[in-house]
Amino acid sequence: MVLQVQLVGLDEESSEFICRNTFDHPYPTTKLMWIPDTKGVYPDLLATSGDYLRVWRVSGRSTGLEWQLWTHREQAGAGGRVAAARRSKW
Q1: Is residue 68 very low, low, confident or very high in pLDDT (cuts 50, 70, 90)?
Q2: Please, which of 41, 50, 55, 64 could form a disulfide with 27 given CB 3.0 to 4.6 Å?
């Protein structure tokens, strides 16, 4: 099963929503948060949650994974320890 996220935008000439970008996502998303840079100084970022928290860099018609964050729980006797891990492409 291929899961995808579509980014849509308003075409001001036709007043219709159009697909601006589509990218594969490995797990169904439960929440999306968008951080667009309206001044064009910083990269546009999109965060998705599901099995992990993923942060994507959106550039024109391409989208690439920047960070993948997750919490890993290891059982240690009666208690537990929670450690955060991060994967970054740069």
Answers
A1: very high
A2: 50
Supply the DSSP string of 57-86, one letter for each residue. Answer: EEETTEEEEEEEEEEEEEEETTEEEEEEEE
CA distances (Å), 84 to each of 58, 70, 74, in order? Answer: 25, 6, 11
Q: Which DSSP state fits 10? A: E
Q: What does the alpha-carbon distance between residue 87 and residue 26 come to, in Å, rounded to a whole number? A: 15
Number of other CB atoms surrounding residue 47 within 10 Å:
17
3-state secondary structure of 52: coil
What is the domain count for the chain? Answer: 1
- Please check whether residue 21 is in contact with residue 7, taking contact to mean a CB–CB distance below 8 angstroms: yes
pTM assigned to the model: 0.70
Domain boundaries, position 54: 3-88
